[in-house]
Structure formats: C-alpha cells, structure tokens
Specification:
alpha/beta; 6-stranded parallel β-sheet; 13 helices; 14 strands; globular
C-alpha cells in the first residue's frame, strides 16, 4: 500500500493551484496526505484526492509564527516518521527553496523525496526536477508529479477542482443573479484601494445589478466599508472556504486581486476580473483555465519585484483601474445580468 506525502506550505490559493498535481499523485497512490500551513490547510481539505491533512507552520515560508524552534522540528519529524510515508513531493513557488523541508523529511526517514530545485541538493533529493519559469503554477506543480512517475487519468484534463457537494448557501446570497467583490488580499501590494471597490459596488447596484461582498473574519471591517450605503450584501466573516466556494459557484463573476478567492473561483468555473499587480508573473499566477480579464498596468515599475508592500508612491500599477473598467470587464465576460420586474413577471436582461 503506497502512502505519499505532498507538501505545500503556503496560502490557500497556492494549495488550490497544486490540485492537479495532488490528483495525479492520488491516481498513483493508495493514500495521500497533504502537509499544509495554517493558511492553506482549509484549501487542502477541499481538494479531490486528499485523504488526510497535516498542518504545520513552516517558518521559512510563513513568517507569521516566529522563529524556528528545535522542539517544533522534533515534533514534526517524529510525527512524519510515525506515519511511515513511502515517498514525498515538496511543492514550492519559483522563489522558494524545497531543501529545508527535504532535510526534515530525511530526518523523518522518508525514503524518497522529490522537488523542484535550482540549488544543488546533495543527498536531500532523489528527484531534482527543473522547469522553465513563468509557466502556469498548476502546470509547474503537475510537471513535478509527472517527473516522479505520477500522472492524471485520461479523463482528467488538469483544471482546478474542489470536492463536491459544496454547502448550501442559498440563505446567504440573493435569489437574483449577482457578482462578487472580494476586496481583501494576503499582501498589501496586491490590494486595489477600498474606495474603488466601494465605488464599483455603488456603480453596479445603481445599474440594477446585485452585488455580494466577501471576506474572511479578519476582513469584516474592510467588507463593511465596501458595502456601506451601496445596497450590496456584506458576507464578511460569514463564510468558511467551502461556503465561499459555493458563493462563488453561484455568482456570475468575481472581482478580486491576485488572491486565493480568484483561484477558488477558477476551481468552480466562475469568470474572474483580476485586478492584478504585476509584482509576480501573470502567466504563472493568473486564474487558471477560466474566463478572465486582467486589469492593471502590467508594465509598471513594480513588475516582477515580488514586493509585498508597494514601494512606489500612490500604488501606480493598480490606481489606473477605475470602476468603469471593472464594469466593462464584467460585461466582456458576460457576467452581468440584471433583474427587472414587468407587472408581476420577473425577466432577465443582459
């Protein structure tokens, strides 16, 4: 019986993008465990092919947990050793090193380890895979799984997916067709100004469209600022990741930055207007295999800097985007349908 570990220690969006690779591993394994961080474990539990999720804050990926302690390493390696994995794949982004995790896996006596690595791994890796940078992140991760001998079945075309059925959210969303605005991002450099989101909500509702604003429990103040006085439905803090997936699946379109919900929308097939800061490659990180319009100055001075806080006055790459641009992008995607009442009969108008 083959038990394979897949490590992806970043945010929810990163874990979602690993979905095709995880399904390939699952197709060639009897059991798959995913080791994820606290910001990605909920996404791992949404992925087909995952039998179990372990959670561990990886300090060289996520600095939110403070310095690495010897006790943390000892507890993790003892737990990994106890589970007796047959092999492990370490998935990383282009700017991250897989070697610290590979070292811990060796300390846990995992007999076979594969990862993408530009750095010489010595004996830490059995498979040192290399890829051309800039390819879509799901394909990057999947290429590692394929190099390790795993592959998707012929019926699986490698798109993003989540487990079904999703929760019933009919009590949270309007009966009429609606679009979702998600103003939050994991890093400030990717955030479109909150007043622009609020202006967009007002513009859409004034034109007769239903709007839902979503956000995590920590973003309730943000969503309240966007929805205030606009007539939009504020779901800030009211949805877990599975419920958010269901809301997005019911929506006609999503407006968001380069953030996890954009990838979640792709996983449920919902078109995305991505207000995309060019700090990372749009080729690698744009919503995958779903109708998408990217807005923002993709040639701005912050291009490819990987900045998490905008280093330039006025956030020039994103302030060029106006609410009217978002409206036009939603129309381009066919994501706007408004309800009008004629007598007692409801009719949809594009």
């Amino acid at each position: 019986m083959t038990h394979t570990l897949v490590v992806r220690s970043d945010n929810a969006g990163d874990v979602l993008l690993a979905g095709p690779a995880i399904r390939a591993v699952a197709y060639g394994s009897d059991r798959v465990t995913v080791l994820a961080g606290p910001h990605g474990s909920a996404a791992a539990r949404l992925l087909p092919g995952v039998d179990e999720v372990m959670e561990w804050l990886c300090p060289w990926i996520d600095s939110g947990g403070g310095p690495l302690e010897a006790r943390d390493v000892r507890e993790l390696t003892e737990e990994l050793a106890r589970r007796r994995f047959d092999g492990a794949l370490v998935l990383t982004s282009f700017h991250q090193s897989a070697l610290p995790m590979a070292l811990l896996l060796r300390m846990a006596a995992v007999p076979w380890v594969g990862a993408i690595s530009e750095d010489f791994p010595g004996s830490l890796l059995d498979l040192r895979h290399r890829v051309e940078e800039g390819i879509p992140e799901p394909e990057r991760a999947l290429s590692l799984a394929v190099a390790a001998g795993f592959g998707l079945p012929a019926s699986d075309h490698g798109a993003l997916h989540v487990l079904r059925p999703l929760p019933d959210v009919s009590h949270l969303v309007p009966e009429s067709p609606f679009v979702v605005l998600h103003p939050g991002t994991s890093v400030p450099a990717r955030a479109w100004p909150v007043d622009r989101f609020a202006e967009t909500a007002r513009l859409l509702t004034r034109l007769g469209h239903c709007v839902v604003v979503t956000g995590s429990p920590g973003e309730k103040d943000l969503t309240a600022r966007v929805a205030a006085g606009t007539g939009a439905v504020d779901l800030g803090g009211l949805t877990g990741l599975a419920e958010l997936a269901a809301v997005l699946e019911a929506a006609q379109g999503l407006v968001a930055g380069n953030t996890g919900p954009a990838h979640l929308a792709a996983a449920v097939g919902t078109p995305v207007v991505s207000i995309f800061a060019p700090t990372v490659s749009r080729t690698a990180w744009a919503p995958y295999r779903v109708p998408t319009v990217l807005l923002g100055d993709q040639d701005a001075v912050c291009r490819d800097t990987r900045a998490t806080v905008c280093p330039f006055e006025g956030h020039p790459c994103l302030v060029v985007v106006q609410p009217s641009d978002v409206l036009g992008a939603l129309e381009q995607l066919g994501a706007l349908t408004r309800q009008v009442t004629v007598g007692s009969v409801r009719q949809e108008k594009p």
